[in-house]
Every structure is written in C-alpha cells, then in structure tokens.
Amino acid sequence: MTGLPVADRATTRRSSRDLLRGERTAVLTVLLLQAAAAAAALAAPRLLGAIVDDVISGAAMARIDRLALAIAVCTLVQGVLLRYGYLVGYRLGERAVARLRERFVRRALDLPTAVVERAGTGDLANRSSVDVSQVGTTVRDVVPILLIAASQVVLLIGAVFLIHPVLGLVALAGLPSILGVTRWYLRRASPAYLAEGAAAADLTEALTTTAEGARTVEAFRLSGERVTSGTVRVKRQWATRRATLALRSVFYPVVEASYAVPIAVVLVAGGALARRGAVSIGDVVAAALLLQQAIEPLDRVLQFIEQAQRGVASYARVLGVGFGVPEQRGVAPAPGDERIEVRGARFAYANGHDVLHGIDLDLRPGERLAIVGPSGAGKSTLARLLAGNEAPHHGAVTLGGVPVAEIDPAERRRLVALVTQEHHVFIGTLRDNLSFAAPDATDGDMLRALVSVGADWYATLPDGLDTPLGEGAAHQLGPADAQQLALARIVLADPHTLILDEATAALDPTTARRTERALAAVLGGRTVIAIAHRLNTARDADRVAVLADGRITELGTHDELVDAGGAYAALWRSWHG
Ligand SMILES: Nc1ncnc2c1ncn2[C@@H]1O[C@H](COP(=O)(O)OP(=O)(O)OP(=O)(O)O)[C@@H](O)[C@H]1O
C-alpha cells in the first residue's frame, strides 16, 4: 500500500501564508489589541515598584492609594483588550479552518479512485478527521496564542531593559539554554510527529479493514492473523509515541530549569546595582516581577511550539492530499468518437512487476466483448485501464483518440461506466442517490430509470424518492436492490460504454438472475466489455478475448474460438459438459 503524499517544508510554509491571505486586517487587529493588552500589563509591576519606593521614602497614603487604583484600572483595561483580541483571533482562526476544510473536501473529491485505493481509505479518513482538526486547533488556538505570547515576552524583557540595561542583559541569562533545547527539539519533532501520524493512519486502516471485513475474517478464520497484524501496528504506533514522548521529556525539564535562573540572577545583580545607587529597590522588584510575569507567556510559547509542530506535520499531510491529484486533469480534449483502442498497453501495480504485458485491442462502438481468463490473468486490471481508473505506464488506452485516464473524471464517467460487485448506497434520500449521476434528471426520469432496471421495490418505499437510504436509515436495500440502484444511476448517466467487472459474481443465484435481467435492460445500444465468469456471457458476446498471464492469447467470435480448438475451446467443452 502506497500512502498519500506529504507536502514538503517549503510548500507547507507557502500554503500556511496562503491560508491567512486576505486576513491582513484581522491579523493586524489581533496583534494591535494584544500588544496594547501586554502594554497595559507592563504598567502593574512598574506601579508596584513605585509603591515600594514610596513606602520606603514614607510618601503620603493618598499617593499610594492612587497608584493602587491605577493598577486596578490597568488590569481592567488589559482584560477588555484581551477579550477583544481573543475574539478577533478566534474568528480569524475559524474562517481559516473553514477555508481549509472546503479545500480539503475539494481535493479529496478530485482524488482518482486508484490513488485512494492504493493509499488505503484509512489514510484519507485519518487525514480528513485527525489531521484537519489538528490543523484547526493550531490555527484557531495555537497561532494567535503563539503570536500574542511571543510579543508579550519581548515587551516584558524590553521593559526590564528600560529599567536598567544591565538588568535587561541579566534577564536574558536563561535564554541560551531555552533556545538551544528548542532548536534541538524542533529538529527532531517534525519527523517524529510525521512518523506518529503515519503510524496512526496505518493502525486506523488495519482496524477499519478488519471491521469492514469482519464476516470474511470469521469465515476464513483470519482472526489470529488480523490480531497479529493489528498488534504489529499498535507496537509501531507505541514506538513512535515513545519517540515523541522522549523528546518532550528532555525539552520541558530543561525549559523549566531555565525559567528560575534569570529571576535569581536579576535579584543578585539588582541588589549590587542598588547598593551602588544605580537603581532603586523598587526598580529591582519591578524587574523581578516583570520577569516572573514573562514566565507564563514564555511557557505558553514553548508549549504551543510543540502543538504547532503537530499542526505543521498534520498540515503537511492535509496538503499532501492535493498532490495525489494528477495535474493533467481536465486538459485532455473531448474524445472525437466512441472508439476504444488499446495499443501495446503495459501496466504494473509495483514498479518492475508488469501484470499486463502489451495489450492490443480495438472496440467498435456498440460491440459486445467478453473477456475470459484464469484468476489473476489481469482481467480486472484491464477493465480499470479501459475505464480510465488507471493509466498504462507504456502504450496507450484511448477513447475517440484521447487517453481515457486523462479525460476529466466527471466527463469520463458520463462516457464510460465501470460496473463492479461493489454497490454503495449513500446516506441520503433515494433522489439524492440517483441525482448525482445526472443532476438535471427529473423525478419522471428517475422513476423511468428505476422501472427500466426492474427495481420493483420502489413501490414499497414509504416516501418514494424522498425515502432516506444508506447506513442507519430505517429502510435498508438488499444487495440486489442496491445493485439495481447502481444500474438505475447508469441509465440516468447514459454512458455509451459499459465495462462490467463480474457485476453479479458475488450475488446468490436468484439475486444474480434478477440483477442480470436488470443489466440486460441497461446494455442496449451501448458498447459493452464484460468480464465473464460464466461462459454463456461469452457465447452471447460479439467477440471473446482470452486473457492469460497479462496477454491476450485468443481473440475472435465464440464460434471461431471454439473451432480453433485452443484454450477457450477447452474451457467451453469442460464448462458445457
Ligand atoms: N491493487 C493491487 N495491487 C497490487 N497487485 C494487484 C492489485 N490488484 C491486482 N493485483 C495483481 O495483478 C494481477 C492481476 O490481477 P487482476 O485482479 O487484474 O486479475 P483477474 O484476472 O481480474 O483475477 P480475478 O479473476 O481473480 O479477479 C494479479 O497478480 C494480482 O495479484
């Protein structure tokens, strides 16, 4: 399984700026409000320092009361400014997250199915839930707080410099160790959190597949194997979590120790300066209080740097979803006609391991071609190439002279439909389930489509086209009904070419017969390529292609192939008794 790509650092940085583009006024307002709040906060220690000096010099009580009142007013002003600062900041964050979510949904919907299948739905599910909400928290909470706290620290240390430059320099004593350990931590944190994210996605993928395939797991007694594979993934996630925990266990203690040092040194140096009359005792108290006040925002900066790291790692994973979308999408010209041509097509799921070795095939519009062959011969792979879900790494598969895989996916689905055993009923009404195949279809069109595929269950629905369907709905469709729903969608989409990949193979015989009758109604007037597991499908086709080991070994009408006496003839004889 190849995971979805992850954006590199430069792209992540560029896109972070993009995320805040158009928000310059809001960003400036947040910064101004927070800076003003921080400035108001600076007044309290200075005023307290003044009170200390006044008490020492025996100043009047009324003056001390005024100073105390000024402290209260400054604190109130700070509170009001902070409230509005946070309000604007959070709104800004919410808007940015909403934009990010919209972009993510667009990108995820643009992903070719082949990319999602290869990456595994767990990876996409993890990125759309855990990672998007992690980025959300970062933008909404972490970035504003980081900006605010960082500016508070600068202002507070700046204020100590204003009291006396020597005290300012002393106040910086704890910074080298904080900066050093932060650099050490940041270098290691990003890859460690990326590894943690990837391990979590892998575990989600394994658990989801096990839960989805619970019946198969039970039927084939695979529970032991699934538990082992789950345990391996849990261990991997545990190891990656330990790695990030190890980083934190060095980072935080060093930082905590570095907070205490500057205050102690400021008090010692301040005492020496006060003895020489360079500063007053009040100044020393104010400087120590300012530094004490700086601990809280500094602590927040460091704590949130860690969260920001997680956010950046998640953002790189969210952005990576966009890289799974091939760039040439939508640029291919519209196909000239309905002819399908396959020329020397080679395809490999893993580099160097071709499963199709140079396929040549021409399909006339309106022709019915059956593809037969042993399991693993490459029939489904060829079907995926013909439907444009995959592109050959060598040779070409074209529709009307245009490479099928390069046609805009929405346009392609209008022209070519791949019908497989999978038949998904989406959560929504029956109308919703039908209308995405043809958004302009009227209720009458939908009813005709349902009737044409024999979906007589429609008459029993309590609310007709408005009946809710899908997981959790009161009315559940059985496999055959769901397959008929899928076929009704095809009638509405009206593609000129249908590729049937064992569409009825997984159904029980009665259901399969019902579905095949429905299928027959859909096939009329279209080019049909059917992967045939029952040879009567092959007999009824205009031509039969025999696929073995990724190569077409026989091609002709049923009668021609039976007369030729090759592999197909042997298969036919053994099947026909
Ligand atoms: N997603 C995939 N990743 C890697 N290898 C794959 C994938 N799908 C199929 N293969 C391999 O490609 C080869 C052709 O598989 P394919 O499913 O096309 O054969 P098939 O003729 O349709 O078989 P069946 O009749 O059993 O469905 C097989 O060796 C299979 O293991």
Number of strands: 12
Radius of gyration: 34 Å
Helix proportion: 55-70%
Instruction: Give the low-pLDDT segments.
Output: none
- CATH C-level of the largest domain: Mainly Alpha
Q: Kindly report the name of the CATH homologous superfamily of the largest domain.
A: ABC transporter type 1, transmembrane domain
Query: What topology, given as strand order, has the largest sheet?
Result: 6-9-10-3-11-12
Shape: elongated
- Helical run tally: 19
Domain ABC transmembrane type-1: 28-310
Organism: Asanoa ishikariensis
Main location: membrane
Transmembrane segments: 67-86, 142-163, 169-186, 250-274
Provide a compact summary of the structure:
The protein contains 19 helices and twelve strands.
Architecture overview:
The chain has 577 residues and is α/β, with parallel strands linked by helices. It folds into 2 domains: 9-323, Up-down Bundle (ABC transporter transmembrane region fold); 340-576, Rossmann fold. 65% of the residues lie in helices and 11% in strands. The chain contains 19 helices and 12 strands. It has helices at residues 9-20, 24-57, 61-110, 113-119, 121-163, 165-171, 175-212, 214-219, 223-275, 281-323, 379-386, 409-415, 430-435, 443-452, 479-493, 509-523, 535-540, 558-564, 567-576; strands at residues 340-350, 353-363, 368-372, 394-399, 402-403, 416-419, 428-429, 468-469, 497-501, 527-531, 543-548, 551-556. A hairpin with a 2-residue loop joins strand 1 and strand 2 (353-363). It is elongated, with a radius of gyration of 34 Å. The mean pLDDT is 84. The chain binds adenosine-5'-triphosphate (ATP). Residues 349, 355, 373, 375-381 line the site of adenosine-5'-triphosphate. It is found in: Cell membrane. GO terms for molecular function: ABC-type oligopeptide transporter activity; ATP binding; ATP hydrolysis activity. One of its GO terms (cellular component) is plasma membrane. It comes from Asanoa ishikariensis. This is ATP-binding cassette, subfamily C.
